Amino acid sequence: MELTKIDRRQLLSHIKRIVVKVGSSTIAQKFNLNAERLDRLVDDLATVKGQGKEVILVTSGAIVAGTGKLGFAHRPQTLPEL
Predict the structure, then answer these.
(1) What is the number of alpha carbons within 13 Å of residue 58 lying toward its C-beta?
(2) What's the pTM?
(3) How many CA atoms, within 13 angstroms, populate the side-chain half-sphere of residue 26?
(4) Which of 4, 61, 71, 81 has CB 3.0 to 4.6 Å from 76, enough for a Cys bridge?
(5) What average pLDDT does range 55-69 have in this prediction?
(6) Cα distance from N-terminal residue to C-terminal residue, the chain
(7) What are the pLDDT digits (tens) for 41-50?
């Protein structure tokens, strides 16, 4: 069964918490965070939060950001480096 737009809106009106999973390539380029993309993401999530929803952001971007800050030329492979 396919949901119509009205059905989706009704379904979404009952949702209290939204989990957003963002891959590192969405918020980073090579080994640096992309501030413009992060700003847009934060604005979008703030809009959703302003609608009374709890927002949880999950990302693998921490490794990418740390890789650049630590001066690695490539993605770390060992658990201690990660």
Answers:
(1) 4
(2) 0.66
(3) 13
(4) 81
(5) 82
(6) 44
(7) 999 999 999 9
